[in-house]
User: What shape does this take?
Amino acid sequence: MGLRWSDIDFEAGTIQVRRTLCWVRGSWVEGEPKTAAGRRKVVLPPELLGILKEHKRAQAEAKLKAGPGWSSEYGDLVFSTRAGQPIPGQSLRRGLKQVLKRAGLPAIRFHDLRHTHATLLLVGGVNPRVVQERLGHTQVGIILGTYSHVLADLQREAALKLDRTLFKPQPR
Assistant: This one.
């Protein structure tokens, strides 16, 4: 919610997670991530960078249309309403639900997208330490404990790879 355009380095292909933005007792409150590990740099997939560039262009058009009705109170938010305000949680959840329904996917909570991200990375063979850093966890044990069901499948896959390497070597 607190991501700003100034946090994105399109040339390097990274975002900097520097702040949080939460609705607390009737107003938006900006803060810092809970831990030092939460303040992090994350490398983005090239395709996502392209999507973000298009989003930035569309947001610039919305800003021009809104004119003086555009709020700059919260800075250059990447994800904002058509008037530059932070997106209320209810609207965010409703939008996610609509996107998932159009894609034929089951309804999930917004936070579940983090779990999906971690699971896809682990299944793709990404080192758990890298997944830990991307999610901003302080210890790799959190990843290993939370995603043990995924890691069990990877254990089976590792055993099969070892079997092929040791007992069924390919001719050279």
